[in-house]
Amino acid sequence: MVSTRTRLLPAPLAVAALGRGLTGCAGEVPMQPAEGANEPACADLTVRLPATVSGLDRRATNAQATGAWGDPVGVELRCGVEASGPTTDQCVNVNGVDWVIDETNAPIYRFEPYGRTPGGEVVVNNEVASGTLTVTDLAAAVKVLPQTRQCLSVVDFVDPSQQAQND
Asked: Is the pLDDT confidence value at 67 over 50?
């Protein structure tokens, strides 16, 4: 015999409660996949993403070839974006990966693993996460993206014979 005191949750509440149970309190991070998210190299990258980045725990996302860390989100990664060409933006090498840094929207910074195909991007909210720690933590995973170009400095373009004359 079924008790008349048993109550069923309305369907939307039951689904919401189930979703929270599967993904934790933070829930799934809504993201847009990049146009090239279905590239095999993006799958290789995605399976290598670390559990923590800049001290933030990884969260589930709703889009292919993406990653997110923190609650609130401090770091978002997308693989399969169109790779940038040559730029005058700052470029640094961290653990064997060249990163172009776009500071236009500070304290939100965009890091691009330069010269990698398919392209990628990492967006860091500097009020929640450290850009330096983020690119350090992601370098090993990003190395699976084939490198086709590297960052160069002005010194790379100076004729050695001219440099010797200037010294």
From this structure: yes
* Alpha carbon 157 to chain centroid, angstroms: 31
| Tokens (6 digits) for 68 | 């997110």
Q: 98: which 2 tokens?
A: 């060249």
What distance in Å separates the CA atoms of residue 121 and residue 152, rounded to the nearest whole number?
Answer: 20
Q: According to the model, what pLDDT value does residue 1 have?
A: 37
Domain residue spans of the chain: 27-152
Instruction: Kindly report the pTM of this predicted structure.
Output: 0.77
> Is 147 in contact with 115 (CB distance < 8 Å)?
yes
- State pLDDT tens for residues 8-42: 333 333 333 333 333 345 589 999 999 999 999 99
Tokens of 163: 């440099």
At residue 163, the 3 state secondary structure works out as: helix
Contact indicator for 119, 101 with CB cutoff of 8 Å: no
Report residue 88 as tokens: 């005058």
Report residue 99: phi and psi, to 5°.
-120, 125
